[in-house]
Specification:
1 helix; 6-stranded mixed sheet; mainly beta; globular; 6 strands
Length: about 90
C-alpha cells in the first residue's frame, strides 16, 4: 500500500484537479518516490490502493472524473483533511 505524503500543483489552488505530482511512501517496502497524477491513476487501475494522512485523519485516495478528465482525490471529502491539496507541497 502507498501513502501519499505531499503534492505538487500546477498553480496555487485548493483544487485537486490541478495536482500534477505526488510524493509517496510504500508502507511495505519502505521505498519513497514521486509519481505523476497519470501514473497514480494507472496504479489504481491495477487494483492498488493508497491513502493520505495529515497525522490524525487517514483517508483513501481515489480517482475522480470532472468534465471528462481524471484526477486523484480523497474519500470522504471534508473535515481537517478536506482534500489532497491540504497535504504539504514539494
Amino acid at each position: 500500500m502507498v501513502q501519499v505524503l505531499a503534492v505538487r500543483v500546477a498553480q496555487e489552488t485548493q483544487d485537486e484537479a490541478h495536482i500534477t505530482y505526488v510524493r509517496w511512501y510504500n508502507t511495505t517496502t519502505g521505498e519513497i518516490g514521486v509519481a505523476t497524477t497519470a501514473a497514480m491513476i494507472e496504479y489504481f487501475a491495477k487494483g492498488s490502493t493508497a491513502y493520505a494522512c495529515d497525522g490524525i485523519v487517514i483517508k483513501q485516495v481515489v480517482v475522480r472524473t470532472l468534465a471528462g478528465a481524471q484526477f486523484i482525490g480523497i474519500e470522504p471529502q471534508g473535515g481537517a483533511l478536506a482534500n489532497l491539496t491540504r497535504l504539504p507541497r514539494f
